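Dear colleague,

Thank you for sharing your sequence with our group. We've completed the structure prediction you requested, and as agreed, I am returning the results in plain text so they can be pasted directly into your records. Please verify that the sequence below matches your submission; if there's any discrepancy, let me know and we will rerun it promptly.
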Amino acid sequence: MGYRLLTMILSPSFSRPHRLSRSMRQPILLLSLVMVSLPSSSVALPKRLILGVDGVAYRDMKALQAGVTYEDAHGFQFHRQAFTNGYFPVSRNVSTFPSTSDVAWTEILGDRPLPGYQRTYFCEALNSTIVINGVTTSMEHERQMDWEVENGFLRSMGYVFPVHMFQYEAHELVENFLNTKSQADNYYAYIRSTDDAQHLSRDILAMLCALDGKLNELRARYKAIEGRDLEILILSDHGNNHAGPGKRIQVRGFLKKAGYRITKSLGNPKDIVLPTTGIESWVEIHNSPAETEPLLERLRHLKGVDVLTARAPGQVNRFIVMNSEGERANIDWNSNRNSFRYTMETGDPIQYRPVVEALARKSQLDPEGFATADAWMAETLAHRYPVALERIVRGLTRVTLNPATILISLNNKYVHCGWLVKRGSELVTIGGTHGGLDDLNSDGILLSNFEPTKDTSATRVAALFDGFPGLRDYRTVESGAEWISGSEQALTRIARAPIDRYSRMLPGNELFLRVWTPRFGQPGVEGAVDVTIAKARKFSDGLISLGNPRPKGAAERHLTLDLPISLPDNWSDERVYPLPSDLILEPEKEYWISGRIRDREKDTRIFDFAFRTDSRGLPVAY
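Please find the predicted structure tokens below.
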């Protein structure tokens, strides 16, 4: 693995054309023919490859299919065309708001919402900022892939050598697909370096041409083995504004000057939590609801703001939209019908007046002025702010378990990042970013070679393909555990495991320990799980870093869990245990929990992880 990547790093880039010598062409051609004719497995290969490519924009793929002539960053002129060999025209896949990877892929696959928009987030139950390493950790959507780069070091190489990392990913994708033992119809794979490369101003069109060539090679080898065509579906999670490095928005200094205090937790009305990761074209703000209106009025004067959105204080299903000119509108949401109303108070902050008029002409507004989510989507797919009402509402309520009070979409000439990250980015060439509400940031792709596609959104795309069946169920082959609650588990949009289908049977406010391991189904394994809980190391107030080992010699609490709850389906690899009534922990502390099962006279550890308690001393889920 390392040798192949090193070879790619040392080899010439595909950005400039180069030729093989005549003496090399014939042996390589013969070798290729031999390779194509050799089956790699006695098991039939999957019928369909579903490939996620991070951050590929609709406008780039559309241009590439049509053919485009352009100059790259070095002034070399190229004409490129790709994905024309059997592919249907590309469609839009409109992202979430914010248009960032973790929440978008989670929405695309219908998984339970994540704790935060990113892996540094504010946890309301803990009133603390949580920090998780974004390179070495994997979210649910990543673990559901049949193939992706899991190694943290290799992932980090995407930020250093993105083109070479892309070559490595494309190569490994093909080889792992051809050697899979999976008997499922669908094979899911994920390439993340396409996003890394665009952040670092690499030639995404050249990379997509190379991917097309690699997939054509795969299609030829597949047909030689299986005697049929490989079905390919390619989709991405968001676009990229290609706006260059951008100016750093001075949101921290602006808020401090206005009398606010940037903190890691909320203690008084003037406290602001401002989670920040990477270089982004959006900002999330957590604040006291009483300060929302004053903040909106102030923030519209902040240079670099494009659109401000917020939950209306004291009104559960009303949301505020403003722009930098002070124009303001309200979004009302009927959650039972999933319908929306756009009411302009002062001006038209997102230019939706023509949309409202079009819906009225088509008799798609009810007597109260609401239209369904699908009607709004159909009318706004090609708008500068596509599917804006639904995305704003979901961004402030559903795409994460800890939504922000205010979400800001930035002018594409500006970025939000920490001072150190911005200074570091000045050492390289930055090509652009994403996260904002507009089409440049939001329009990802949906592309197929087996059936025409149509413009859709992250919330809907799975329904076009039977809910993406056959995603890797990592809990059947790995061991682990997590705290869950019925109410939050019920937010899973596509039920895949029994706990998803029957989450409403769990009391919504109670806590459970979800444990999974393939050992549960093995002979000789006892049913009880022996649990050890110990207080973890102390951290500074308001800032928690999960995943740290507990110190040796800490006081320990031992429990035996042997009465899992009963659910209707057979559930051999997974069990859910209620929180023991006699478990008493200190409030607002961090703990480390581990679990073992007895297997033929031997104790086997099956999980360990860190968690935090709330003000009542109860573990906080997720």
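Summary note from our side: The chain has three domains: 41-109+128-243+441-465, 247-425, 475-612.

Kind regards,
the structure core
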